[in-house]
Write a structure and sequence with these properties.
It contains eleven helices and ten strands. With 359 residues, it is α/β, with parallel strands linked by helices. The N terminus and C terminus are likely disordered. One of its GO terms (molecular function) is oxidoreductase activity. InterPro entries: AKR, Aldo/ket_reductase_CS, NAD(P)_OxRdtase_dom_sf, NADP_OxRdtase_dom.
């Protein structure tokens, strides 16, 4: 009894000092990815100064960013400070993404989903982060927009974007493979690709995609892609695990969400949270982990950052997993449809396009 109590308090002290130890999953290429990471989409420079040190302090070792997020340099500064205090590069798993529809008009390239741009885009990311390599480099989106000679997106008079319909996933992937061979990326993968697109890259690749990152939470559970990834041995990462309540401004049109409550306010989620003595966020994260999906929650709040990683000390019952499974909206709920860029007519637009309800 005394020994058990001592061990318990030792673990508490260890966790306080060093944070939670996050389990990993083996990728198809032999590398390992932490099953819980820290997302950085929409984090400003000031946010990053608080959030990244808090994440690292609490045990996060998987940081997810992208050139398009406009915060790689800030993350690089935070990582440099962590390294200066004894942190080791090999203990981190850094994900970034091949830029496609960047809003950064002051940096080049603002459009990089072309074979000729891959090497330059990757080098810019590494320079921003102050790293010699990233652990995972993803093709951010499967479609491409036209650009002007000064690397701005080409717009028509009516405000819509000009589509570049020459997108060639295989040619882009061949350049991605070169990054691995050059030691610039440990692993490579895809983001926001649909089943047909994933299979096309898979069938024409020397180095297989080891990761697929897509939007997924209890409202959009992506079972088809989850099953595909299991079949191929691809690790699935889900962004927007908490529902991304701060991203409604991204949508050009109201989608078919039926006036649904935010994910964390759903009565089923809240009821299960009360049952386990956990927060709603911890419940939906635990649900994702038990479905073998890597989760990358984001927060600007240090307390929430700590809370979100404390999901390894309990298990959801099979009945509660079933209750959460039934919250799936069968594709009717999608925050990240990219319709703000008028891309639904691009031949590589990855989603089934629906005309939203008028209400």
């Amino acid at each position: 009894m005394v020994l058990t109590t001592c061990v318990f308090y030792f673990l508490l002290i260890f966790q306080y000092c060093y944070g939670v130890t996050v389990p990993t999953r083996k990728l198809i290429d032999g590398n390992e990815i932490p099953v819980l990471g820290f997302g950085t989409y929409l984090l400003t420079s000031e946010d990053v100064k608080i959030a990244i040190p808090a994440a690292l302090k609490n045990g996060y070792r998987h940081i997810d960013t992208a050139f398009d997020y406009q915060n790689e340099k800030d993350i690089g500064i935070a990582l440099k400070e962590w390294f200066s205090t004894g942190g080791k590069r090999e203990d981190l798993f850094i994900t970034s993404k091949l830029n496609d529809i960047s809003r950064m008009l002051m940096q080049l390239p603002t459009q990089a989903n072309r074979p000729s741009d891959v090497a330059e885009a990757a080098e810019m990311t590494l320079n921003n982060l102050g790293l010699e390599y990233v652990d995972m480099y993803l093709v951010h989106l499967p479609f491409t927009l036209q650009r002007t000679p000064d690397f701005r997106h080409l717009k028509y008079e009516n405000g819509t974007y000009a589509l570049d319909t020459s997108t060639d996933h295989i040619a882009v992937w061949k350049e991605m493979e070169k990054l691995v061979k050059a030691g610039k990326a440990k692993s490579i993968g895809l983001s926001n690709f649909n089943k047909t697109q994933v299979l096309r890259v898979w069938a024409n690749s020397e180095i297989k995609p080891s990761n697929l990152q897509i939007e997924t939470n209890v409202y959009i559970q992506q079972e088809e892609l989850n099953e595909l990834c299991k079949e191929l041995g691809i690790v699935l990462t889900g962004y927007s695990p908490l529902g991304s309540a701060d991203t409604t401004h991204l949508r050009r049109r109201k989608r078919q969400t039926g006036g649904m409550l935010p994910v964390l306010e759903h009565p089923v989620v809240q009821g299960i949270a009360r049952k386990y003595g956990k927060s709603p966020a911890q419940i939906v994260l635990r649900y994702k982990l038990q479905r073998n999906i890597v989760a990358i929650p984001k927060s600007r709040n240090s307390d929430h950052i700590k809370e979100n990683i404390e999901v390894f000390d309990f298990q959801l019952s099979s009945s509660d997993m079933t209750r959460l499974r039934k919250l799936d909206q069968n594709g009717r709920y999608r925050k990240f449809d990219f319709l703000t860029f008028n891309v639904e007519h691009h031949p590589e637009y990855p989603f089934s396009y629906r005309i939203p309800d008028a209400n």
